[in-house]
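**User:**
If convenient, please work through this fold.
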Amino acid sequence: MAVEELKVSTERRFSDVSADSGRASGGMTCSLSPGIGDAEGELLPMYEFEIPNTLVGLIIGIRGKTIKELCVRADVKMIIRPHHNSDKSESHQICTVEGKRDCINKCLRLLRRRFPSNRFPDLNLKPVMPPPMPCPAAEIFGNQPTNLALPDGVRCEVVVSAVVNPGHFFIQQPTHPTFSKLQQLDRYMLGIYSQTSGIPELPQPCAIGLLCVAPSHLGWYRAVTMAYYEDQDEVLIRYVDYGGYARLPRSDLRQIRTDLMTLPFQATECYLANVQPADGTSQWSDQASEDFQSLFVGKLTEACVVGHMIEDQIPVVELYTLDSEDQSVKCDKYLLDKDLAKLSDPSKWIPVSPK
């Protein structure tokens, strides 16, 4: 499982990240962010192991009694399906256990008590890796990492998926044809990286620009390394599908499988056009942050790329939404009208040609 490299700019935007921060800078705050949602929609860990065909009937039990009892006692879901490896499809099947980590461990203990290793040596309960994920995007993009781009000068529907501050955020494009594959990828990665063994960490020292897998909100998500702090053995990473930054121990990060790189990165980093904090510093007020969250986060909005920042080529966008009375709200104008921002220096970005 090779570590894949991705060329990224790392020279800016991180000097104000707290040295002791272990969470995402700004957080992943949208309803589409990884692992956020109600209990029914929560992404739960999965554990998969092999069952010899000779034991499948015993584990299921008469009319499913045994497997139902295991599910109830351990508070998990269990599914037995054909083996994905053609070499073992005639002799073994796969059992998937889904639930909270403690519940999965309880289920495995109950299975071992019922089927002790001295009597059932062929049932080892060791984790197996899922097969490569089929992804139609691979036919278009291949296995090289691809960033989704916003069209210049055109308003398109977006969702703000992570916020650093009102002037710096990440957006997703839920109407893009590849977006529907993201939830499938999330669940697939959860099944792989919830395994406690067999997944290599990132090498030490950690290089910059490595595509990897990082934990967040009870899930595992694609990320890229942005900075390495050798003294603490910690890594600043950016989540490429939901946005946001996090500073995490290197040992928490995992190498990524090549087949997980086919889906284009879903989060686009953006700056808000025309405005800066009202006091001229880099710090936005609490009121500006609260208003931005309530108006633009967790709902379908529109964005239009009006330029690109000279320093890092990140798109500069105007944001539009509807308020509670269905009146159109332009983000920069709202902040200016409320005295929560002032006009920014237009010489810092290059405008795009209007469509």
Observations:
- The first helix runs from residue 53 to 60.
- The domain at 154-175+266-351 is CATH 2.40.50.90 (OB fold (Dihydrolipoamide Acetyltransferase, E2P)).
- The chain has seven helices and 19 strands.
- The helical segments are 53-60, 65-74, 101-114, 137-141, 182-193, 286-296, 331-337.
